[in-house]
Write a structure and sequence with these properties.
Length: 117
């Protein structure tokens, strides 16, 4: 099996998937950061396909940048309040050709992630 990368974003403050959230994927090599693609979450909080498909998978270091600030601004119950959380960068290593799933649990005041399945 070749490797690939997926993600899923849940808006824990609203109790639903985070639809319409932009995500950028970067490959990290030393201090260099190469932009690979930008995708947006669908109504289920997932991208329509793998954020890094099998045909493009390479072992290495990566970064997902979840554009949480724009999402929170558009979906906050109190849009006039000063926003606490900005964009969320998550760096991780894919060390074997496997399925990597990096979900984000998001609220206006915090987030968490883990290696999912």
């Amino acid at each position: 099996m070749s490797g690939y990368l997926t993600t899923h974003v849940l808006d824990t403050a609203r109790g639903r998937p985070a639809a319409g959230l932009a995500i950028d994927l970067f490959r990290i090599e030393g201090e260099a950061r190469a932009h690979l693609r930008r995708m947006e979450t669908n109504a289920d909080g997932r991208t329509d396909g793998p954020i890094l498909p099998e045909a493009e998978f390479e072992i290495g270091d990566y970064e997902l940048v979840f554009h949480a600030a724009a999402y929170i601004d558009a979906n906050s119950a109190t849009p006039d309040a000063p926003r606490f959380l900005g964009d969320v960068p998550i760096r991780f290593t894919m060390s074997e050709p496997a399925h990597y799933h990096v979900p984000l649990l998001l609220s206006p005041y915090g987030y968490s992630t883990y290696r999912g399945s």
